[in-house]
């Protein structure tokens, strides 16, 4: 089993903090998992960011996951990729990157989750839970009962897949979400736009840890 962190922090394009600054802040706050999500830059710019963030993550012992951009594998110190395309062929991607690379996928339905589990994905982000400005989409929200049903269905099929709730999650949502049986939480906006970045991260961490 690969190491999958229960609180996953995601960087985004935001006006007041660069991706590198977000990663630095997150690591200083105690983050052990950073997902670099940037869909607005050239490969050269991406690699410049990734190399700098990888150095920060190495200093802090933090896992670095990159959203999409799987073609950058082996060009930087990347531990894994999160693929947002819900129709992606993860069997093919696994062959491409090898067994040591962590592969995460996105899902909006239980059927999505089952397919990901059968294709050997290491974890899945299941959402959105609520309105999120950091990743606009038209997918329906996932309810607490749907999270519970997803866990039960995977268990019924003897499928092991760590599920993380994602999308518009606040610290106030953590208790009810974790009580559904999910593995963890992925968060971005509630930390990035908080008055105190460090305190916001640590509040999420303590809430998730308490309920794990």
Automatic annotation (TrEMBL):
The domain of life is Bacteria
Transmembrane ranges? Answer: none
Record-annotated Thiamine phosphate synthase/TenI domain positions: 10-191
Q: In which pathway does it act?
A: Cofactor biosynthesis; thiamine diphosphate biosynthesis
Mind telling me which Pfam families this protein's record contains?
Answer: TMP-TENI
Gene3D superfamilies attached to this UniProt entry: Aldolase class I
Q: Which UniProt keywords apply?
A: Thiamine biosynthesis
PANTHER family to which the protein is assigned, alphabetical: THIAMINE-PHOSPHATE PYROPHOSPHORYLASE, THIAMINE-PHOSPHATE SYNTHASE
Report the protein name in the record. Answer: Thiamine-phosphate synthase
Which gene name does the record give? thiE
């Amino acid at each position: 089993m690969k190491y999958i962190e229960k609180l996953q922090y995601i960087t985004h394009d935001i006006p007041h903090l660069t991706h590198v600054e977000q990663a630095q802040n997150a690591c200083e706050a105690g983050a052990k998992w950073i997902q670099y999500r940037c869909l607005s830059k050239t490969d050269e710019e991406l690699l410049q960011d990734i190399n700098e963030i990888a150095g920060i993550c190495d200093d802090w012992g933090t896992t670095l996951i990159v959203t999409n951009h799987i073609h950058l594998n082996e060009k930087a110190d990347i531990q894994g990729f999160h693929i947002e395309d819900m129709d992606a062929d993860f069997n093919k991607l696994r062959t491409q990157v090898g067994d040591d690379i962590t592969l995460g996928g996105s899902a909006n339905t239980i059927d999505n989750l089952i397919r990901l589990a059968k294709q050997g994905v290491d974890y899945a982000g299941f959402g959105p839970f609520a309105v999120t400005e950091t990743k606009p989409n038209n997918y329906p929200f996932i309810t607490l009962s749907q999270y519970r049903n997803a866990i039960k269905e995977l268990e019924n099929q003897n499928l092991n897949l760590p599920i993380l709730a994602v999308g518009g999650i606040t610290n106030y949502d953590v208790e009810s979400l974790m009580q559904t049986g999910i593995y963890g939480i992925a968060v971005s906006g509630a930390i990035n736009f908080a008055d105190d970045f460090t305190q916001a991260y640590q509040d999420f961490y303590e809430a998730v840890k308490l309920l794990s």
